[in-house]
Amino acid sequence: MGSNITTLAIGYGLPVHLVDVDRPTLDQARARIARQLRHAHLLGALPADQPAGELVTSTSVAGAEGATAVLEAVTELPDVKRKVLAEVAAVVPPGTPLVSNTSGIPIDELAEELPCPEQLVGTHFMNPTYLIKMVELVRGPRTSDAAVAAVESLLGALDRTPVVVRDDPGFVTSRLLHPMINQAARIVERGTATVDAVDTLMQGCLGHPTGPLRTADLIGLDNLVDSLAALYERTGEQSCRPCDLLLEKVASGDLGRKTGQGFYDYGEVLS
């Protein structure tokens, strides 16, 4: 999601300082962003007459010092997110909006160790960000009006439509979609229907645009399992406990489109 959001931002002319764990990862991200920019322009999803914003990459959060806003999009693990947000908060001026892109971790949990918890806002961008215009914007109980307004303004500059929701595990989209995908995988696990049959019925009968299992491959099955586990831990709802089939696919490294194999075989790694 970090490279997806970067693609969107530089596609609208905004400069981005992208930080990741090491130089090879950053090199891969830069190549992925270039491919995504080409794809987005081919589809007319980015303004054709807008020069791309400057992209700078580094392995240090010190580069965030002069940022007008900081968006964290690391792995869906609360401790990792809290650590990164705390590191960033230590280098940015007070009042700088901090944004955690998460599919369902409550924002107030992530704000606990921040010196200014009112700066933190949640977003849930959909993948691919340059094709899906709507974004969940999550307001925590301590989030300030100024922080929400700043992030709404940023999303407006990216031609995205924010929908503000209250802080709660899974928010809206993940709380509805991820248990549904989990149940779809359970149906396949029980042998009731094939993967293709489940998706075909959901598309043809219920109007789901791609089918839940094809959507799972796009999300990334590891990301999906992490999100479901976080929901199960916080709600106790059995519908959120990752099913065995999902766990087996993640354990075998079949994570969806990004590895070339998930519920479907993509023949090559796609990113």
TrEMBL record:
Residues 1-167 form the 3-hydroxyacyl-CoA dehydrogenase NAD binding domain. The keyword Oxidoreductase applies. Pfam families: 3HCDH, 3HCDH_N. Coiled coil: none annotated. Keywords: Oxidoreductase. It comes from the Bacteria. The keyword Oxidoreductase applies. One of its GO terms (molecular function) is oxidoreductase activity, acting on the CH-OH group of donors, NAD or NADP as acceptor. GO terms for biological process: fatty acid metabolic process. Pathway: Lipid metabolism; butanoate metabolism. Residues 170-266 form the 3-hydroxyacyl-CoA dehydrogenase C-terminal domain. Belongs to the 3-hydroxyacyl-CoA dehydrogenase family. PANTHER family: 3-HYDROXYACYL-COA DEHYDROGENASE FAMILY PROTEIN (PTHR48075), 3-HYDROXYBUTYRYL-COA DEHYDROGENASE (PTHR48075:SF5). This is 3-hydroxyacyl-CoA dehydrogenase family protein. The lineage of its organism: Bacteria, Bacillati, Actinomycetota, Actinomycetes, Pseudonocardiales.
